[in-house]
Specification:
single chain; 397 residues; alpha+beta; 3 domains; eight-stranded antiparallel barrel; two-stranded antiparallel ribbon; 11 strands; 23% strand; globular
Length: 397
C-alpha cells in the first residue's frame, strides 16, 4: 500500500510535477525560440541598416544571398523608373503617355535650339550671344566754346561736345548727338547721357545751322557771340550688337597724333562705349539731373524695350530726335567690344578688321582732299573750310 500510496502520490503530485516540468521546459524552449527569432529579425534589420557590430558575418551572408538574386531581378526595372514616372504610372496610362510626350517635346525643343544655333548665321538672325555689325560710317567730334569764348583754354570753357554720325548708306543722313557733360566717358564708372539733337541732317543744313557761329543782341549784355563748332577728331565707327548689349566703337584717323584737347575730351585712337537707349515711358534715374521730355518713339522702337527702362541701342533709335542715349565708357577700348562670344564659331564678320579697313579707306580719301586736318574734315563734309576755324591740338590756340 505504501507503494500504491507513493504511486498515487506520485500520480497525483509527481505526475503533475513532471508534466509541469516538461511544460516548463517546452515553454522555455518556445521562449528561447522566440528570442532566437527576435534576434534573427534584429540581425536582419541590423544587417540592412549597415550597423551590425555583433560580428555575425556568416548569418549576414546567409541572409543577403537570397536577397541578392531578388535585387538583381528587381533592380533593372527600378533603375528605369524615376519617381516622377512612377507617379505618372500610378495615375494611369493616359498620364504616362502625356509624360512621354512631354519628354519627347523637350528633346525636340533642344534639337530645334541646336539647329537654330547652327543656322543662325545663314539666316542673319543673331541670337542673344551673337555678334553683328548694325551700322558703319564716319564719325566726327566737335566742341563749341561758351558764349564769347571762341578758343577755349580748358574744359570749363567748353559749352558742349558733339558727336556726328554719318552712316555709309546713302538713304540715311547724318545724326547729331549732344553730350552736355562736355567730355566723353573713358571707363565703366563714367556714364554720360547724350541726346539726339538733329536727325536727317544734310550737308548744307549742317553747315548753316550748326557749324557756323552767330551773333545775337541782349538787353543787359549787348551783342553776344556764339562761336562756331570746332572739329577735334574724325574717324570711322561701327554700331555693334552683342545681343543683350550694343557698342559704339570708333577708330580715329584725324588727327594722326592726339593733342591736349583730344586727351582731355576723352578721345582715344581706338575707343568704344556701351550704348543704351532710355525708355521715355519711365521716369529718369536718380542723379541724372533735369532731362528733357523724351520723344514719342514709333511702335517698332517701343517693341525693342519689351517693357524695360533701357534697351540696347539700335540705329533706328538714333533716327528719332530727342532720343536719350547713355554712353558708358570702356577702359579696354575696342578690344572687349569687338570680342566675339566663346560659344560663337569662327568665320563670321570681324568688327575689328572691318573698322581697320574702313579707317584705311577713310585715310586715303582724306589725304586726297587736303593736308590740313581741319581742311580735310570740312572738305569731306563739303563745308567751306575757309569760313571755319582749324582743328586745334592745344587749348588756347
Amino acid at each position: 500500500m505504501p507503494t500504491t500510496r507513493a504511486k498515487a502520490h506520485s500520480a497525483s503530485n509527481g505526475g503533475d510535477d513532471t508534466t509541469a516540468t516538461a511544460g516548463t521546459k517546452h515553454e522555455l524552449a518556445d521562449k528561447n525560440d522566440q528570442k532566437t527569432a527576435k534576434k534573427q529579425k534584429t540581425l536582419e534589420e541590423t544587417v540592412d541598416n549597415g550597423n551590425d557590430k555583433s560580428g555575425a558575418k556568416k548569418e549576414e551572408k546567409a541572409i543577403d544571398q537570397p536577397k541578392a538574386k531578388q535585387t538583381k531581378e528587381d533592380d533593372e526595372p527600378k533603375a528605369k523608373t524615376t519617381p516622377k514616372k512612377a507617379k505618372v504610372e500610378a495615375e494611369g496610362e493616359e498620364k504616362d503617355d502625356e509624360y512621354k510626350a512631354e519628354v519627347n517635346g523637350k528633346k525636340d525643343d533642344s534639337a530645334t535650339k541646336t539647329d537654330d544655333k547652327s543656322t543662325s548665321k545663314s539666316d542673319d538672325k543673331p541670337s542673344d550671344t551673337s555678334l553683328s555689325i548694325l551700322e558703319k560710317g564716319t564719325i566726327y567730334f566737335f566742341l563749341r566754346g561758351r558764349v564769347n569764348v571762341p578758343s577755349p583754354t580748358s574744359i570749363s570753357e567748353i559749352a558742349r561736345t558733339y558727336i556726328l554720325l554719318r552712316p555709309n548708306t546713302t538713304s540715311t543722313k547724318a545724326r547729331l548727338l549732344a553730350v552736355p557733360k562736355k567730355t566723353l566717358p573713358t571707363s565703366g564708372r563714367e556714364r554720360w547721357i547724350s541726346f539726339v539733337e538733329k536727325t536727317s541732317l544734310s550737308l548744307s543744313d549742317l553747315q548753316s545751322s550748326f557749324l557756323e557761329g552767330n551773333e545775337y543782341e541782349t538787353k543787359t549784355r549787348g551783342t553776344q557771340h556764339t562761336p562756331a563748332a570746332r572739329p577735334e577728331g574724325e574717324g570711322v565707327y561701327a554700331i555693334i550688337s552683342k545681343g543683350r548689349e550694343s557698342h559704339l566703337v570708333y577708330l580715329l584717323t584725324r588727327p594722326k597724333e592726339l593733342g591736349e584737347v583730344q586727351v582731355k575730351l576723352g578721345l582715344k585712337e581706338r575707343g568704344s562705349w556701351v550704348v543704351t537707349t532710355r525708355n521715355p515711358e519711365f521716369p529718369p534715374p536718380g542723379g541724372a539731373g533735369r532731362l528733357p521730355e523724351g520723344p514719342e518713339f514709333p511702335e517698332e522702337v517701343k517693341k525693342d524695350f519689351r517693357g524695360l527702362r533701357w534697351a540696347p541701342t539700335k540705329p533706328s533709335h538714333l533716327d528719332v530726335e530727342g532720343a536719350q542715349v547713355l554712353l558708358v565708357g570702356e577702359s579696354s577700348g575696342i578690344e572687349k567690344a569687338t570680342e566675339a562670344p566663346e560659344s560663337e564659331e569662327k568665320g563670321g564678320e570681324d568688327p575689328k578688321e572691318e573698322l581697320e579697313e574702313l579707317a584705311e579707306e577713310d585715310e586715303k580719301r582724306m589725304e586726297s582732299l587736303g593736308e590740313d586736318d581741319s581742311e580735310a574734315i570740312f572738305k569731306d563734309l563739303r563745308a567751306d573750310a575757309e569760313a571755319l576755324p582749324e582743328m586745334q591740338s592745344e587749348f588756347g590756340e
